[in-house]
Amino acid sequence: MKHFPVTSSVLAAENLARLVGNNYSLGKDVTCRLLKTFVNDTYLVIDNSVKYIFRVYSFSWRSEIEIAEELRLINLLHKNNIGVSYPISDVSGKYIQELAAPEGNRFGVLFSFAVGEKSFNPSIEVNFRIGEMMAKIHQQTLNLELQRVNYNSKVLLIDSFDKFKSYLADDSDEMKFMLTSQQFLVNAFKNADVSQIRQGAVHLDIWADNLHVDANNGITFFDFDFCGNGWLCYDIAFNLLMLHGMETNEIEYKKKSEFFLKGYESITIISDEEKRMLPVIGASLYFFYLGIQRERFATVFFNEEHLRRYINFRIKKWMTFNDLNI
């Protein structure tokens, strides 16, 4: 019997343990276990108590050039003593492994393990450190161009909305709100004074789930899968957006966001125009990541009810909080 074609598979951890052990000349007792399947699949590799992360990119998600550019960015930061989970080359000097999966060839990369652990309720001190470290990243990525996506209003607001708008009825309140919001945000991008906005390579996914905090409040960033080109303040806006979603107490949010921004500006200044655009960028990134959810998780949890809840309890809440009157 022929195997039925698949669109997505989860590679067996025990087989990956052997592959990684051989390709990276690790010990004979190396172990591997699946940590999570999300946009990509993440595995924990342990060799004599030394931990690594092996990421298997989803089929047709990133090209080999795009992955190589992601690794180029990470290596630049690592070379300049920025705390990042960095790629490790195999015995032949290659960073990228090619894996023959049922759906087609997929790519894998072995990364160093980020010391510490996640904190979904970071203290004001940790928020200061996150801002400080983000600014140090931006000092290295200012005017850096990657062979990857250029994030602009079309990518964030138009292309993304096209991916999920079919889940909303044309006459629904949510559809009317999203259409009006989209036009408002697109116009805000058009009217931005780009001469006062720094550009370069961005992470676009810096928040509590993609960093570890050690016992001394040291920060290590990881998961640069969404890196690309755009305004550096995209990263600032996204972290504020996610902090707002995690922190239900408005007073605590304002305090933590203030310390995050103070940490950032202890290293480099955020222009007035960048600050003015942060709420607009945040709302636009909600559009973008809803498009990603629709693209990656339509068969898992993405449906009309999820979308309506997200619009009413995330996007509207953010826009109201920031007085984005449409």
According to DSSP, the number of beta strands is 10
The whole-angstrom Rg is: 20 Å
Discrete helix count? 9
Order of helices and strands: HEEEHEEEHHHEEEEHHHH
**Parts with pLDDT < 50 across at least 5 consecutive residues:** none
Classify the secondary structure makeup into a structural class: alpha+beta
* Share in β-strands: 15-25%
The major pleated sheet works out as: 6 strands, antiparallel
Shape: globular
State the separation between the terminal residues, measured CA to CA: 58 Å
**Mean of residue pLDDT values:** 96
Tell me roughly what share of residues is in helical segments.
40-55%
Structural features:
alpha+beta, 46% helix, 326 residues, six-stranded antiparallel sheet, two-stranded antiparallel ribbon, 16% strand, single chain
